[in-house]
Design brief:
Pfam families: Aminotran_3. The protein is of the alpha/beta class. The chain has 2 domains: 175 residues, Alpha-Beta Complex (Aspartate Aminotransferase, domain 1); 265 residues, Type I PLP-dependent aspartate aminotransferase-like (Major domain) (Aspartate Aminotransferase, domain 2, 3-Layer(aba) Sandwich), CATH 3.40.640.10. It is built from 13 helices and 16 strands. The strands form 3 sheets. It has a 7-stranded mixed beta sheet, with helices on both faces. Helix 11 runs parallel beside helix 13 and helix 12 packs antiparallel against helix 13. It starts with 8 loop residues before the first helix and ends with a helix. The relative contact order is 0.14.
Length: 453
């Protein structure tokens, strides 16, 4: 695939100048960034105004699950725009109802009512609000290694350092350690030990906080930005049992892991667990138009049969976003994108990444499934010392910066976070494209190897 237009550096410079003059970027020191000016994208690739093409191993921000510019979804958005561009959320619309139906058909258990939001953070906000109102309790528990969004409650639920600047210590959030066998906070030597000790730690936390004060436990089914740590067998079922015992609402955040990313429609299916509330966004329509939501169990939905739900959004279930969702889900079904993600993970990405680990001393662990993988990069395999310190910046982050630069030089756009690189391409990436990405990673990891001991 090649760019559709001739290189135009002058146009790229104008785009960059306007960006630097007027756009305020998220999570950034504005004077220290140099955003790439993007001219176009299609499938698993995007390109700049110089004509340089990149294989996107980030799929946007892990949301272009069917790649960029899928013609059927673009056509559906265009058709909906010509028919009914927008309408208030209090009305019944065919496209909104159909999007809700298609999502509810794929969520586990009885999560059959859909509350639409504009994205994942708002979905988490509303899930917590529902849980608090349903239980009459205030506290919410979440894991340290997590990311749930940047709005008020969501950022307080988040466990990574992005929370620190906004943490009010008054949001009713209590953090706990979830299982992570490679860097076990419980000094476990097996997955079974890690599972048992993590569940005991969670139950102890609840006991000391007061079970009758806890409204919800919020977990990413598989933590995404924090490192793609698939929970050990039995853990999520154990959390489900604890929640049932204490009357706590179990919320699974599937914003990143949902809609085919793990080789199932939802990652909860891998663990045969049904939460009370499930949040989604990103892959629901491949990010083509902002959309998220909460899938709600029958019991919690019944709480608001005669009691108004005190929450809403001007653009809840926006017709263009819902049209994109309907088209995306149908494309995923008809083109077997979910099955393909499972296949590419089992036959190409998983084996290929493990082969890289055998060749490169900088790779401490490979973990993941489907189109959802992480390489934990280390200075020393024996001690598992991370390649860069936790939350490193500036000179301390130089090894990962060098690795990222090497990826880009080889035409791969990497997902880099702390001491990890994630392989999270479009779920419909071809085998040839996946192998191209693995070859670029192979070359870049040689740079990371230079920092090992």
């Amino acid at each position: 695939m090649t760019p559709h237009a001739e290189p135009d550096p002058q146009a790229g410079a104008a785009v960059k100048a306007a960006d630097r003059a007027h756009v305020f970027h998220s999570w950034s020191a504005q004077g220290l960034i140099d955003p790439l000016a993007v001219a176009g994208a299609e499938g698993s690739y995007f390109w700049d105004y110089e004509g340089k093409r990149y294989l996107d191993f980030t799929s946007g921000l892990v949301y272009t699950n069917i790649g960029y510019q899928h013609p059927r979804v673009v056509e559906a958005i265009q058709e909906q725009a010509g028919r009914l561009t927008t309408f208030a959320p209090a009305f019944a619309l065919d496209v909104r109802s159909e999007a809700a139906r298609l999502i509810a058909e794929r969520t586990p258990g009885d999560l059959d009512k859909i509350f639409f939001t504009n994205g994942g953070a708002e979905a988490v906000e509303n899930a917590v609000r529902m849980a608090r109102l349903h239980t009459g309790r205030a506290k919410v528990l979440s894991a340290y290694r997590s990311y749930h969004g940047a709005t008020s409650t969501a950022i307080n639920l988040t466990g990574d350092p992005r929370r620190w600047a906004s943490d009010t210590a008054s949001a009713g959030v209590v953090h706990f350690w979830a299982p992570f066998p490679y860097r076990s906070p419980f000094y476990s030597s097996t997955e079974a030990e890690e599972c048992a000790r993590a569940l005991r730690h969670l139950e102890d936390t609840i006991a000391f906080e007061g079970p009758a004060t806890v409204a919800a436990i919020v977990l990413e089914t598989i933590p995404g930005t924090a490192g793609i740590m698939t929970p050990p067998p039995g853990y999520l079922a154990g959390v489900r049992e604890i929640c049932d015992r204490y009357g706590i609402v179990f919320v699974l955040d599937e914003v990143m892991a949902g809609f085919g990313r793990t080789g199932r429609w939802f990652a909860a299916e891998h663990h045969d667990v049904v939460p009370d509330l499930l949040t989604f966004a990103k892959g629901v329509n491949s990010g083509y138009v902002p959309l998220g939501g909460v899938a709600i169990s029958a019991e919690i939905a019944a709480t608001f049969d005669r009691r108004p739900y005190p929450g809403g959004l001007t653009y809840s279930g926006h017709p263009l976003a819902c049209a994109a969702a309907v088209a995306t889900i149908r494309v995923m079904e008809e083109e077997k994108v979910v099955e393909h993600a499972a296949h590419i993970g089992e036959t190409v990405l998983g084996p290929g990444l493990r082969a890289l680990a055998e060749r490169h001393p900088s790779v401490g662990e490979v973990r993941g499934l489907g189109a959802f993988w992480a390489l934990d990069l280390v200075r020393d395999r024996e001690t598992r010392e991370p390649l860069v310190p936790y939350n490193a910046s500036g000179d301390a982050a130089a090894p990962m910066a060098a690795f990222g630069a090497a990826c880009k030089k080889n035409g791969l756009w990497p997902f880099v976070n702390m001491n990890r690189t994630h392989a999270v391409p479009a779920c419909n990436i071809t085998e040839a494209e996946a192998k191209e990405g693995l070859a670029a990673l192979d070359a870049a990891l040689s740079v990371a190897d230079e920092y090992t001991v």
